[in-house]
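Record type: monomer structure entry
Structure origin: computed from sequence
Chain ID: A
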Amino acid sequence: RSPTSAAPPALRPLAPLALIARGRSARRRATEDIGREDRGAMPAKPGSRYWAPHAELAFVPALCTAVDAQKVKFTDSEGNDFQVSSEAADALDLVFDAQLEGVDNVCTLEVVNQAAVMHTVRTRYLRSPPQVYTRVSRIVIAVNPFQHLPIYTGSVMKQYLQSPDSLELDPHVFGIGSDAVNGLRSPGQKNQAVLISGESGAGKTESTKHVLLYLASVLKSEHGLEDKLLQVSPVLESFGNAKTVRNDNSSRFGKWIQISINPSTMRLRGASVTDYLLEVPRVCNQGPDERNYHVFYQVFSKEAIEDFPMLGLKAADPRNFRYLKKRNVHVSGMDDEEHYRNLRAALAALKFEEEEEEHVFRIVAGVLHLGNLDFVALGEGSGVEDKAVVNTAAEVLKVDARELAKCVCFKRRKTAREVMECPLTPAAAELTRDSIAKMVYGRLFRWLVRRGNAALGADLGAVAPGKAERMIGVLDIAGFEFFKTNLLEQLFINLSNEKLQQFFNNAVFKSELAEYAAEGIPITRIDYQDNQQILDLIEGKGGILQTLDDATTGIVLTDHKYTAKIIKDHAKHPCFVTPKFVAKDPLLFGVRHYAGEVTYTTTAFVEKNEAQEPPEVLD
């Protein structure tokens, strides 16, 4: 997680991480060590060191100096004295010297617990230069340093390219790429998957790019396909990333990158990207201290205006556009001019035609102009207030201005005998305007993904007889989010992270326990959080999402009635949190996620779930 992020959610026990130790003897020792933690509370003893609770660092090593019936006194390494209740002190873990060394693989520790893992990661990060990677066997923990480090050079990569096993080298994201390639080369040639997860701002996007850089360097092709693979990222970042309160380059969508490989030659045959959960509401509205998607600012760069004078943005101020009328039009350290040049270079590398590029930027600018439409009341309906604005939007989008005005001011309703065009009030016309903008941008993003996939579809020839195509997949999804205001988008993102956490539980903990049983290794009770209850609450029968679907497709409920229903239905669920003041905040509910408690605001839940594309626009 980012060392500069907000206060962490509730911490979870990490003792099962010791289960990832490789080798029978190592695993046996790990289980014995974990069992030591479960042998009952032991009274704290003066002169012994313990992992004591700390408000900022979670745990610190501290020396027990005095004990009485009510409290235990400690002194930390900086000479600070504090005390803990006797009951709490009796549950504290002892400190072992090896836990303080900052080892590169926590599975080498004799005793593994949450405090030891956190202290190891922190100790390594605080070194100069920062050691941002720590290994948990084949898992790599990365701490975002928010600075450029000279550890991604060609010479560093060469070490991992030449090593038969990444465990022989320092922990590194390149080691993850190496493990994937070596796994594909091993007997059986099993397909590989790289899962990159973490909270918002943890550095997942950059980690993904480093993994792809490594894979592209190993899996050469005869058609330069590896270069195209690397150029997909700048395109998707421009159109799918934005500044949030926690991250200046936050991915507002998830992606699964599937790399196809010829098993006989170990050469790249093709690749594809599958996108998930693009946050389309951001097109029309962003929270305080946030920005719209990067591309909306890149089109105002000097070069963009010179390249595409037909966009109607010459001498325009981004702050004069409704969809950009927020703070942080410019972000410190982010050069929109340079990123525009990178975007154009990436589009060229993916073989976009000039006409295709013009159409892409027309849509981006057209969405901005569309957002500036204002409406006035005309009888029972409405009309566009400024004809010049709708004319500009129509000209940029290359559509008829009268038809465009008609689409936003009228709604088409079908009856058994006819189709009627019903006038919309100014408020309803504004909602339609925003719906069109979100629909157009969402379709543009999906088209860009398809177009990029077409460029990545090169084939190095037929696979040898008897050998099936192999693949390496890289998953990069939006990280767990808990903002001041959490909407339906955050619920979807956090649900996807819950699913990933469940996969992790099954792949690491449950499978390891099954292996111990098969090997006859005795093991004491191992506690880890199984999040199936959380998944059932959100997506199970009668859960939060099914109730939302019912509120949309059945008897339509308002957000207030929907919230009241899920509070009534799930108030006693152990993972559901009922607001303390329901009458004061009738649109709030909470979920105890695996990473902590999140309070959601149900504003526009029903409307967003309905999200039908205006049929009059599609025609």
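Annotation 1: Confidence is low (pLDDT under 50) at residues 1-41.
Annotation 2: The CA atoms of residues 45 and 64 lie 7 Å apart.
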